[in-house]
Specification:
single chain; about 250 residues; N-utilizing Substance Protein B Homolog, Chain A; 2 domains; globular
């Protein structure tokens, strides 16, 4: 019995738009209250550092607070943009499936159109994952613990910039820190500040930096940042080891 391309498309069409709301609901339930305060602080610090201009060694407390406020507003705008993009992807996916029902000449062309529609739906789901985190991040950003650690990170990176950059430069291979994208430099500086000055376990800082890079850097940025920070921790470990007597 020959396979009807239209029947395949209709089945997939029904499946995608039945499963999409269920997946979204499952994401909401799974991720609810799942944000760690310090993770939110790191993201707020990253967004705040991107606003700092110049090289003054002192930031006034009011200026710090304003930086964090702008970072929170940035998250709000980001959430709105993500939801709009996700909605557009779902609409495109829906249109692609409708088109495949009427224009697919055979099973192969139907499969190609359906695959494209599924990719669009998956993209929408991935965007929703991030968008769903943002309201909780914004709400938690007002907590004392989150705000205090955000300010501590910003101040440490700002005051100890020279020392942090020297340590990072010492472990960069065939790269200069100044040539890296600003977002990558700031992710590295936050992690280095935690490791060197704030006594955060190396593994925690590296993992958190990698997660930020996956969200804010380019496709391969997180691998690069992971490698640099692992070399940094090894360099620090060796420099702190007792010297062998000669």
């Amino acid at each position: 019995m020959p396979i009807d391309a239209s029947s395949i498309v209709q089945s997939v069409h029904f499946g995608i738009f039945l499963v999409l709301p269920l997946l979204t609901f499952d994401i909401i339930v799974t991720m609810h209250f799942n944000q760690k305060p310090r993770r939110i602080s790191r993201e707020l610090a990253l967004l705040s550092l991107s606003q700092i201009k110049g090289s003054s060694k002192k930031l006034e407390q009011t200026e710090l607070s304003n930086l964090v406020l702008v970072a929170i507003r940035t998250l709000t705008t980001e959430g709105q943009d993500i939801l709009e993009t996700a909605a557009a992807e779902v609409t495109r996916s829906h249109k692609r499936l409708l088109k495949s029902e009427t224009q697919a000449a055979d099973v192969q062309s139907a499969k190609a159109m359906v695959s494209e529609a599924i990719e669009l739906a998956q993209g929408a789901i991935n965007r929703l994952v991030h968008a769903i985190e943002l309201p909780e991040m914004i709400q938690l950003s007002s907590q004392h613990e989150v705000r205090e650690y955000t300010l501590e990170l910003i101040e440490t990176v700002y005051r100890r910039r020279l020392e942090i950059d020297q340590q990072l430069e010492s472990v960069l291979v065939d790269w200069q820190l100044s040539r890296l994208p600003k977002i990558d430099r700031d992710i590295l500086r936050i992690a280095a500040a935690e490791i060197i000055f704030l006594n955060v376990p190396c593994k925690v800082s590296i993992n958190e930096a990698v997660e930020m890079a996956k969200r804010y850097s380019d496709d391969d940025g997180y691998r690069f940042i992971n490698g640099v920070l692992r070399r940094l921790t090894e360099h620090l470990r060796k420099s702190m080891s007792p010297k062998d007597p000669t």
